Amino acid sequence: MTVLFCLAVYGQAQTSVYESYIEQYKSLAVGQMAKYGVPASITLAQGLLESGAGQSTLATEANNHFGIKTGGSWKGPYVLRDDDAPNERFRAYKSVKDSYEDHSRLLQKPRYSALFRLKPTDYKGWAKGLKSAGYATNPRYADLLISLIERYDLDRFDKDLRRMNNRDVQRWMSDVLKGSPATIADRWTVRRCNGVYYVVAHAGDTYDDIAQWADVSEKKLRKYNEVPKDMALRGGEIVYLGKKQVKAAKQLKGKVHRVVVGESMHSISQLYGIRLASLYKLNNLPAGYVPAAGDCLQLR
């Protein structure tokens, strides 16, 4: 009888801590959903699981709520903790907001790109996809996330964005952006064109720099962008993190691109996220054709 009573008290205490965490960070999770497209239910469930509802040492001492390790791109502070190996390096943040922001940015990397083809309300697909992409080594990771989402009805927050008007979204976004972006060490902002993620290079960047950050080989990155191994990267150039598409986005159906001075077939293919060979084929042009200013190119 006493044992059962103690278990009941423990369960109530845990529920209280978890519900407090959800109440405290729900707006931050919805804000991240508005900004990056990561379901709020997934963000909250991962935060609950990885940080023990904000009670773990990593969370209390380093504001790290998602168990993110330093990796090759991290230049900020870190703490040491035993995990898969002794004394592993985990990222340390100035605030919990920075931890949430970094988590969303991490999920923009190519290895997680398949997740963003799922419906934002498909929390089961997201949970299983995170496990398949290698976010965690625990074989029950997806089941644990799904259990938390269903126990605390976290998927209700995934529907919040549909009910928001523009002013509401701005308010959520304002909550997210109050954290200082300078505390996030990633150098590149991930964007998407024609369904493919890309970054814009800064002066002095190399393909190797971006490849290491994106967790992909330089050879593969150059192949995605259709550039030879000896071509240098220049500031302002688009660098795709996955294969470009055969045609431009559907919204460009019936539209043409009018070539301006200085453009090449390659730069145009990069602009629209189209494979170079496809651009030649769409316009019945031979490989190596050099477009002249004023030429009109079909995009679909």
SSE arrangement:
Blueprint: H1 2-36, H2 40-51, H3 57-62, E1 78-81, E2 88-91, H4 96-106, H5 123-132, H6 141-151, H7 160-163, H8 166-177, E3 191-193, E4 196-200, H9 207-214, H10 218-225, E5 238-240, E6 256-258, H11 265-272, H12 276-282, E7 296-298
Antiparallel strand pairs: 1-2, 3-4, 4-5, 6-7
Helix pairs in contact: 1-2, 1-4, 1-8, 2-6, 5-6, 9-10
Structure summary:
The protein is mainly alpha-helical and 300 residues long.
Feature tags:
mainly alpha; disordered N terminus; Membrane-bound Lytic Murein Transglycosylase D, Chain A; Lysozyme; 300 residues; 12 helices; 3 domains; single chain
What does this structure look like?
The chain is mainly α and 300 residues long. The chain folds into three domains: 2-183, Lysozyme; 191-240, LysM domain (Membrane-bound Lytic Murein Transglycosylase D, Chain A); 250-298, Membrane-bound Lytic Murein Transglycosylase D, Chain A, CATH 3.10.350. 44% of the residues lie in helices and 8% in strands. The protein contains twelve helices and seven strands. Strand 1 and strand 2 (88-91) form a beta hairpin. Helix 1 (2-36) packs across helix 4 (96-106) and helix 5 (123-132) runs antiparallel to helix 6 (141-151). Residues 1-13 and 162-185 have low confidence and may be disordered.
